[in-house]
Specification:
Radius of gyration: 18 Å
Structural class: alpha/beta
Oligomer: single chain
Number of helices: 8
Shape: globular
Strand content: 15-25%
Mean pLDDT: 85
Order of helices and strands: EHEHHHEHEEHEEEEHEH
Helix content: 25-40%
Largest sheet: 8 strands, mixed
C-alpha cells in the first residue's frame, strides 16, 4: 500500500528512523512521497532513491561516521584556533564529506538533481538566516531565481543538515544575492504540515516518524546557567511550532521514538549503540502499528 512519510531531524539518532522504516516495509507499506529535516532528510532521500532499510543501515554502518567531521585545517591542533575558526567560518566542520557521501549514494541509483525524481517525491526543509525564512527544497528555489529541477539533491540535503555552529552554513549564491542556509530544524524539525492542506483530501495516508517521546512526555528544562539557557532556547525554537501543530491534528499518525540519552552530534557511536537505536525504532513502530488505523 502506498503512503507518504515525514522524518524528523535528530542527528546521529537518525539510526532509529531506519529501524522504524524496516518495520514499515515489513508491514507492506511503500512510500510514494517523502519529506524530512536534517537526519530525516538523509533517510528520506535514500528512500526516494529506492534503498531498503537494510541497505541504508549497511551504508551508514560500514562508514566511520567521524569521517563527516571534516575540519578545514586538520593540521592545526591548537584548541584556541578551533574557536577562532568557528568565529570566522561559522562552523567547526565543513560538511563537504557529508555532502559527497550523499552524492555518491544517490548517484549509484542514477539520481543527481531533482529533475531525476518524480515531482514532489522528495522535499526537505532548510533555514535561510539571511532572509529570515523557512525554505522548502526544491520548491522554494524559484524565490532565489533558480530552477528547482537542476538543483543537486545532495546539496539540498547538506543544507538541511547544517547544524548551527557544528557544520558551516551553506552559502547559496543566486540572482537575488547570497544567503546563509542552515539546518531546517531551526524552524521546522518535523514538517508534517507539508502533506496537510486545509480542505484538501489526502491522496493517501501520511505517516510521521519523530525522534522524541509522545507530545507532552518531554521533561521540563532545568536552567541554571547560560549554557543550559542556550540549549533550552534552541530546543524550544526547534520543536515548539511543530509540537503545537501535531498535537492538535496528527498525533495518531506519528511513530514517536524516545531517544533520550543519545546526543545528536555523537559521531563516535559504537556498532552496538547503532544497533540499539535501530532496534528502538523498530520496537516503537511495532507498538504503533498495533493500534494504527487510517
Amino acid at each position: 500500500m502506498n503512503i507518504d512519510g515525514v522524518f524528523s531531524g535528530g542527528g546521529i539518532k537518525g539510526f532509529a528512523l531506519i529501524g522504524a522504516y524496516e518495520e514499515i516495509e515489513k508491514r507492506g507499506y511503500c512510500f510514494k512521497r517523502v519529506a524530512g529535516t536534517s537526519a530525516g532528510a538523509i533517510i528520506a532521500a535514500l528512500i526516494a532513491a529506492k534503498y531498503t532499510s537494510r541497505e541504508i543501515f549497511q551504508l551508514l554502518n560500514e562508514i566511520d561516521l567521524r569521517r563527516f567531521l571534516d575540519k578545514r585545517y586538520p593540521f592545526l591542533h591548537f584548541p584556541v584556533l578551533k574557536w577562532v575558526h568557528l568565529y570566522w567560518r561559522l562552523g567547526l566542520y565543513k560538511g563537504n564529506e557529508l555532502e559527497k557521501w550523499i552524492q555518491d549514494k544517490l548517484a549509484a541509483r542514477g539520481l543527481y538533481t531533482f529533475s531525476d525524481l518524480e515531482k514532489d517525491t522528495l522535499r526537505v526543509i532548510a533555514s535561510d538566516l539571511t532572509n529570515n525564512r523557512l525554505v522548502v527544497l526544491p520548491d522554494d528555489l524559484i524565490q532565489f531565481g533558480m530552477d528547482p529541477g537542476t538543483f543537486p539533491i545532495a546539496k539540498a540535503i547538506r543544507m538541511s543538515c547544517s547544524l548551527p555552529y557544528f557544520f558551516e552554513p551553506v552559502k547559496l549564491h543566486s540572482a537575488t544575492g547570497t544567503s546563509l542556509i542552515v539546518d531546517g530544524g531551526v524552524l521546522s524539525n518535523f514538517p508534517m504540515w507539508l502533506f496537510d492542506q486545509e480542505n484538501v483530501k489526502k491522496e493517501r495516508p501520511v505517516l510521521g516518524i519523530k525522534l522524541s517521546p509522545l507530545i507532552g512526555g518531554e521533561n521540563n528544562h532545568k536552567i541554571t546557567n547560560a549554557i543550559q539557557l542556550f540549549e533550552a532556547l534552541f530546543i524550544t525554537m526547534k520543536d515548539a511550532h511543530d509540537a503545537r501543530y501535531i498535537s492538535r491534528k496528527l498525533e495518531k499518525n506519528i511513530i514517536f521514538i524516545p531517544t533520550k540519552g543519545v546526543m545528536a552530534t555523537e559521531f563516535s557511536l559504537t556498532d552496538e549503540m547503532k544497533k540499539d537505536l535501530m532496534e528502538l525504532g523498530k520496537v516503537s513502530a511495532e507498538k504503533f502499528f498495533h493500534h494504527w488505523s487510517f
